[in-house]
Design goal:
By secondary structure, the protein is α/β, with parallel strands linked by helices. It is globular, with a radius of gyration of 19 Å. The strands form 2 sheets. It has a 6-stranded mixed beta sheet, sandwiched between helices. The protein has 7 helices and 8 strands. It has a single domain, classed as Nucleotidyltransferase, domain 5 (2-Layer Sandwich). A hairpin with a 5-residue loop joins β3 and β4. 37% of the residues lie in helices and 20% in strands.
């Protein structure tokens, strides 16, 4: 239904968001995609918060989950301490202004269509678009936008799925096209969904703390799912993800961390070819361990 103001004019509610993108391919089974949604008016506040914790540790290098040191202590643990403070800040305050959605693709599922994705980047493009649509539906549709302009930022240097130079990867063209198509298809089906304008930019993550935060969240998710990390720093951050997801299985009014519609992790496909959120974490921790974080 169209919204009309007191003078009979049609009111169009518009939103502007930045979406920061990362991917992770830990093994032959799992393929992970993470998207961090931040409204334009909150960008500077989120960046100031992240910078505050950098200053506390006097650490200004790139924070990449795969390169976290073994320990939090001492001079060489500053990177890991900053990463831990970032995740705790996300849990406590940043989740109110930076929404994260993670898609876990199970390529060992009997319903995974290997023939449909003859090249890895075909799957990469399609599932990135799927994660984006899910994030828009989960985070933005409830806010009743008519139109949303998205600046989609992906790491220019760490595209793990970028094919050989002899092949064509149409990621930069496909994602804007698919975002617009998903808007049209949703309208055609009578579903509530905003009109999407998407501009895609490639940026070096070393210059962007929000790309680094997205990498940190996705790396912690990978640790929780695969469970093979031996470094205590990585296992602690992965344990936080397990804790959040366990809490998210409770009704929203009973959740301790209040991450409903702020942090979302789901997987695809199950044996029926459908999405699901009961993800099998390999990182095993008990309730007593959870409480120490």
């Amino acid at each position: 239904m169209k919204k009309i103001d007191l003078w009979g004019n049609i009111v169009i509610k518009k939103g502007n968001y930045f979406v920061f993108h990362d991917e992770s391919i830990p093994n032959k089974r799992w393929f992970l995609i993470g998207l961090l949604f931040v409204k334009d008016v909150y960008i500077n506040n989120v960046l100031r918060t992240l910078h505050y914790y950098r200053e506390k540790e006097n650490y200004f290098g790139e924070i990449h989950f795969s390169k976290l040191p073994k320990n939090f202590d001492g001079r060489w643990g500053a990177k890991a301490r900053t990463a831990r403070m970032w995740l705790k800040a996300y849990e406590a305050i940043l989740c109110e202004q930076a929404f994260f959605i993670g898609l876990v693709v199970d390529r060992h599922s009997p319903a995974y269509e290997h023939k449909r994705f003859s090249k890895h980047y075909h799957a990469y493009n399609r599932f990135t678009a799927m994660a984006l649509k899910a994030g828009i539906s989960w985070f933005l549709v409830p806010q009743d936008y008519d139109e949303v302009e998205i600046t989609f930022i992906s790491d220019a240097k760490d595209r793990l799925s970028r094919p050989d130079e002899s092949m064509i990867d149409n990621f930069e063209e496909y994602i804007p096209y698919r975002a617009l198509l998903d808007s049209f298809l949703s309208w055609k089906k009578g579903k509530k969904y905003p009109f999407i304008r998407l501009n895609l930019e490639l940026e070096d993550s070393k210059n962007n703390d929000l790309l680094q935060l997205c990498d940190l969240l996705l790396g912690a998710i990978q640790t929780a799912i695969v469970g093979e990390a031996s470094r205590p720093t990585k296992r602690e951050l992965g344990s936080m993800i397990v804790q959040w997801c366990k809490d998210l299985h409770n009704p929203p009014w009973e959740q301790e961390y209040k991450l409903h519609r702020k942090f979302n992790l789901w997987a695809f496909p199950n044996h029926k070819g459908e999405p699901y959120n009961n993800i099998p974490f390999s990182l095993k921790i008990n309730d007593k361990q959870l409480k120490i974080f």
